[in-house]
Amino acid sequence: MRTAEITRTTAETQITVSINLDGTGKYDVTTGVGFFDHMLDQLARHSLIDITLRATGDLHIDDHHTVEDCGIALGQALAKALGDKRGIRRFGHFALAMDDSQIACALDLSARPFLVWNVDFPTAKIGTFDTELVREFFQALATHGGITLHVDRTHGFNSHHIAEATFKSVARALRMAVEPDPRMAGELPSTKGAL
Ligand SMILES: [Mn+2]
């Protein structure tokens, strides 16, 4: 079973996350940030990666540290659960439509963190949630998960839909990339000898 548990404690946040790459998309997420919980639930549901996450952060300041640090912890858990990456598809992509919004994601579990981000939000807030934190989350996930992550907004005018379509699109691309490829027969999906 490809599972990992990460506990990360700083002066700003305390986070415990456990994931199962071979799950069924079960989620049990509590961060204290309602909209962000809703997004992480989407990530689990549509990647089929089981995610249990508990975060206690300095929300009296704002949501920034909590959202960013959940990205760090989830990225670390992903890298740990992937192990040596033998037999996986490695690459993933998806174009996901949700009402007005369409988000395209292409990613590589390359161990070369890089974020290409072309997702603009028409509003600064979704309820009380700062839309700029969506990028912060994926920057942290890419950096600590060793992901080359490209995300583009093709269409969209509703910030809630744009954010949600982003999480769903990345989730579906991740599902593809972490999946075992039977034709890879346990080999490393690289000619370099390491990933
Ligand atoms: Mn929603």
TrEMBL record:
Q: Which reaction does it catalyse?
A: D-erythro-1-(imidazol-4-yl)glycerol 3-phosphate = 3-(imidazol-4-yl)-2-oxopropyl phosphate + H2O
Q: Tell whether Cytoplasm is among the UniProt keywords.
A: yes
List the EC numbers from the record: 4.2.1.19
List the record's Gene Ontology CC terms alphabetically. cytoplasm
The cross-references to SUPFAM superfamilies, in alphabetical order and at most eight, read: Ribosomal protein S5 domain 2-like
Alphabetized UniProt keyword annotations: Amino-acid biosynthesis, Cytoplasm, Histidine biosynthesis, Lyase
Source superkingdom = Bacteria
- The membrane spanning regions, by residue number, are none
| Pathway membership, UniProt | Amino-acid biosynthesis; L-histidine biosynthesis; L-histidine from 5-phospho-alpha-D-ribose 1-diphosphate: step 6/9
Q: Name one GO molecular function term.
A: imidazoleglycerol-phosphate dehydratase activity
| Gene Ontology terms: biological process | L-histidine biosynthetic process
Compartments where found: Cytoplasm
Q: What is its main location?
A: cytoplasm
Family annotation (PANTHER family)? IMIDAZOLEGLYCEROL-PHOSPHATE DEHYDRATASE, IMIDAZOLEGLYCEROL-PHOSPHATE DEHYDRATASE HIS7
NCBIfam families with a match to the protein in the record: PRK00951.1-5, PRK00951.2-1, PRK00951.2-4
Q: Which HAMAP family match?
A: HisB
What family does this belong to?
A: Belongs to the imidazoleglycerol-phosphate dehydratase family.
Q: What is this protein called?
A: Imidazoleglycerol-phosphate dehydratase
Organism (species):
Pseudotabrizicola algicola
Q: What is the lineage of its organism?
A: Bacteria, Pseudomonadati, Pseudomonadota, Alphaproteobacteria, Rhodobacterales
